[in-house]
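G., before I forget:
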Amino acid sequence: MTINVRVWRQDGPEDRGRFENHVVTDANPHMSFLELLDVMNEQLIGEGKEPIEFDHDCREGICGSCGVVINGTAHGPKQRTASCQLHMRDYSDGDTIVVEPWRASALPVIKDLVVDRTAFDRIMGAGGYVSVATGGAPDANALPVPKEDVDAAFDYATCIGCGACVAACPNSSASLFTGAKIAHLSLLPQGEAERTRRVVAMVDQMAEEGFGDCSNHAECEAVCPKGISISAIARMRREYVKAMVVGDS
Amino acid sequence: MILDSKTPDGPLEDKWDIYKNSVKLVNPANKRKFTVLVVGSGLAGGSAAATLAELGYNVKCFCIQDSPRRAHSIAAQGGINAAKNYPNDGDTVWRLFYDTIKGGDYRSRESNVYRLAQVSNNIIDQAVAQGVPFAREYGGLLTNRSFGGAQVSRTFYARGQTGQQLLLGAYQAMSRQIDAGKIEMLTRQEMLDLVVVNGHAKGIITRNLVTGEIERHHGDAVLLCTGGYGNVYYLSTNAKNSNVTAAWRCHKRGAYFANPCYTQIHPTCIPVSGDYQSKLTLMSESLRNDGRVWVPTDNTDARSPETIPEDARDYYLERRYPSFGNLVPRDVASRAAKAVCDQGRGVGETHRAVYLDFADAIKRLGRDAISERYGNLFEMYERITGENPYKVPMRIYPAVHYTMGGLWVDYELQSTVPGLFVLGEANFSDHGANRLGASALMQGLADGYFVIPYTLGGYLAGIDAGSVSGEEEEFAAAASSAHAKTQELLNINGSRTVTEFHRELGKIVWDGIGMARNADGLKSAIGSIQNLKQEFWQDLRVPGTAETMNKNLEFAGRVADFFELGELMARDALDREESCGGHFREEYQTKEGEALRKDDEYGYVAAWEYKGDPADAVLHKEQIEFENVQPSTRSYK
């Protein structure tokens, strides 16, 4: 099948950027979307041009490296599917696919489709952990945790930190990303001791990084490759309000 | 050089305690004077970086990804072993040790493996304390499942995302230390050389993958936690950026490379579908708990699988290995799949696949129970193949997954270069010739959380802190050679792409040094690799410059190292005139087609010393001593 690719090209953070059009004539329905980009890049190199840069690694939808806006939707048309797991069988011969990087001022473009997501690491550093140094942990079965709680915590813990939630949000909010970690740890007894401190520090850091606030559009949930529910954001807010009342010290 | 494993004296059960009781300690006030460079941020590197920072050392951690959370440990699916014996089914530290030694086909060191089994329980405790959401029973306690090569249920798991959850646990522990200023995290950095000053590892040279700048970093010790080299095969389950470069450059600086021919071909992966294929996807071994592997008895049977009656199916693993059935170890299951496909009984368009069928399990347990156990794996399978495994059997075929070989280390995880320690998959130490399922996560975390904090202290206590500044001529020389090598790749200006070369190399390695090897095939692989390598250096085309992000250039550097490694793998496989674990030499097999080991002649670790060209590599042998277990023919019948 033939696929027309209209792809974003940007030499560096300061460059204005532009679209380029390329035609891939030997696409195949079994191919993944990233393999289509591979084939396009091989073509470009053959023509003596520089390939388009994009982040990718595991190609199994778990590392969170890849992530581009495909025809206006973060990670493309298929629900709960990261860009690497999208396959060309979802497209038809002659289709045009428009590929762009995440667009958010807190996730600036480094080159072409590659963006800087280090803001996420700093939000995690503010409090996305349980302070337990190696050694001295009690026996793993010393503290029973109801299965329902662990299952709910797990649903939030599956976040892969790809950034689609930010890209899809009209406010460029990182609330789903941040809320998912807060919800995961607040549902478990292990996260209890730092519960108040954690939510305040992470929410403050999120604001400091320049992410917007959440105004309940729920676009983030719609594009999340792991299907994380916006109930994470509700939990984050509840935790935050509680922290404001209780105080964070 | 004589390879001294530095295994402590004393009974097996006490060796680790004896070691800990006698190792030198670094005073808490002195720890902050030392800087440790940790390369890689997966389970081994992440856990080591976090733990060393907690102890008070200054840590600089490097990763090639944009965040430490993306290391390929994240993709591990099935689980992590520990000898907790929560199910009360007879497990002990000894049994976990024994299964791992036996599973490795008696090619690993007793002392290392016993220590691994001992600390396995601490890992589970630590992970739970971090908030890792392992699967639990309704009563709130942890649950287990079975994995290949064991007859007890000792595998802890977090749905099909155990690696992700464990890595995030380590990453979160790191994040706390990064925020506290004890870890300086350098992302998008690739290690290109090791700097050795006065015989000790004192620094690394990296390329900043955003700016292209060649950087020098110095410290008091280097921890290499950079994973395995499965991508030498081009197609593997490894992430696209996984590579051997950091380890290979250390090898060139004096670190011996051990058992490079021990590679693991995992039996349950989604088969190759076309030439454009960029990587392969694993379907967790845990699926073999409930899935039954079969092919049609008759190789002309073209009916769709659900219409083939029971008596026309060959459940070949259950038939050949009645006591372990579908849960035989990986090497055995992979060879068996290859054997039925070689007989022409493979299924699917390419006839290089077998069925993994859940119909019986769904009938027995219900669709919901199967979905609870494997839901995300089934979804992943459907996303990739477009087929629904609840309705039709999965089609699977073996694929390269893990490499047991790696840099040689002693009991302290120190390589043959003093001050260079190697952790996790990057070292050779614990899995012998075949790794059992759910053991990689265990080893990476054991090395990082519970072994290196002790053994590194012993090394640091004997040296002066801050003895180099990064201005030494060794740093300048290494930096300029890294720069020159990068430039050389750009200057070839030929006509073929990195991917074309890598794909061709991968095919040579897969055909010659894959699931079955023989002397002729290995010799011909060596010739083909040498020829292709020559072409690579004459006809490679890498567009762009070195002064910017240029992933194609990164790949070119890695493929250049894969050529050299590939040749060494073939030489190692040629030297080892026996079959063991993942290394199956067709000339050495039993009448039933099982691996034929030769302990008297080949009961050694092959540690190769770099001498400029892979053809000149010098073999050093570390004899493996068995004082506690009696090597026997592995039988899973």
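Chain B touches chain A through 80 residues (CB under 8 Å). The two ends of chain B are 42 Å apart (CA to CA).

More on Monday.
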